[in-house]
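Q: Given only this backbone (329 positions), what sequence would you predict?
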């Protein structure tokens, strides 16, 4: 019988715990309706062999200094910028994650943000609540057309590809993109055009961000970047809030440097309720819900659990960030 102990750091979809229990793991779930502090996370992790966590847990050098005994970490997310991967690798700890399964759900959010922003859905809904829907004014509350416009994608991977498919199919948009490496499949299948970063900024009518957060992408959308964009452009970010400089974004929107923004991610998270972005008529903000549908979250829980099960069963991790550590297992 398996005597390994697994810590679930949140109240995840039940399928994750069920799979682990059926494989005879001892499972402990944090069941308070709040995140653990890092010290609580460390204290609880010390008593377990594996952790099943999510991207808001901070697994930095301090964490690994206190929890170097861990056999495996499995992250309920596609991103992993909350984890010091270099330190985990140095300690020979494999780190699993859940790629692929949330691509369509997140692309739906990006696509929805584009439509909602271009037609001011949230602002106009608020006007009804405030009793400001009175009479027809032909020149009031106008949005902008996105059909036949140019979609720019920064980070054309799985999610970006799904966003591009939606925009081509629904609005006949031309796709341009900028990546560290060219995506030849997207160029072939979607007729996507690779451009350098300045051209991406200058040519995009809608600029949708789908990159990972790293040293190259952090803060790349700043005052200088927004100044190179069209005054009629819409900025969409469903990746990480730190990819854009929020102060610079607010200023770009206030001054008309860009037309609008749709955000599923902010910096910090959660966003403060007095953030000026929430009162702008050309901005749509969501509380980081890219993967938030029942089917996707259940698939993520399944993959995160399977990473742990397969590691102990076969010394393999189906979805792993640092595969080199498995050579030493």
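A: Predicted residues:
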């Amino acid at each position: 019988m398996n005597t390994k102990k697994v810590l679930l750091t949140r109240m995840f979809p039940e399928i994750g715990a069920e799979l682990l229990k059926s494989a005879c793991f001892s499972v402990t779930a944090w069941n308070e309706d709040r995140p653990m502090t890092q010290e609580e996370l460390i204290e609880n992790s010390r008593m377990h062999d594996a952790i099943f966590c999510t991207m808001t847990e901070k697994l930095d050098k301090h964490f690994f200094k206190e929890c170097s005994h861990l056999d495996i970490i499995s992250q309920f997310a596609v991103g992993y910028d909350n984890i010091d991967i270099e330190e985990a690798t140095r300690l020979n700890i494999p780190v699993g994650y859940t790629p692929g399964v949330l691509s369509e759900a997140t692309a739906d959010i990006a696509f929805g943000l584009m439509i909602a922003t271009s037609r001011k859905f949230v602002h106009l809904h608020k006007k009804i609540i405030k009793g400001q829907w009175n009479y027809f004014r032909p020149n009031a509350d106008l949005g902008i057309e996105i059909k036949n416009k140019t979609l720019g994608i920064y980070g054309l991977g799985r999610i970006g590809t799904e966003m591009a498919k939606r925009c081509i199919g629904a609005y006949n948009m031309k796709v341009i993109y900028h990546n560290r490496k060219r995506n030849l499949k997207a160029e072939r299948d979607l007729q996507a055009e690779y451009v350098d970063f300045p051209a991406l900024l200058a040519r995009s009518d809608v600029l949708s961000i789908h990159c990972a957060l790293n040293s190259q992408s952090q803060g790349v959308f700043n005052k200088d970047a927004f100044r190179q964009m069209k005054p009629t452009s819409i900025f969409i970010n469903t990746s990480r809030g730190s990819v854009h400089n929020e102060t610079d974004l607010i200023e770009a929107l206030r001054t008309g440097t860009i037309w609008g923004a749709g955000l599923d991610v902010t910096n910090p998270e959660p966003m403060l309720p007095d953030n000026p972005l929430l009162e702008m008529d050309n901005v749509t903000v969501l509380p980081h819900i890219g993967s938030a549908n029942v089917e996707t979250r259940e698939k993520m829980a399944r993959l995160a659990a399977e990473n742990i099960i397969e590691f102990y069963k076969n010394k393999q991790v189906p979805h792993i960030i640092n595969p080199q550590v498995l050579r030493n297992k």
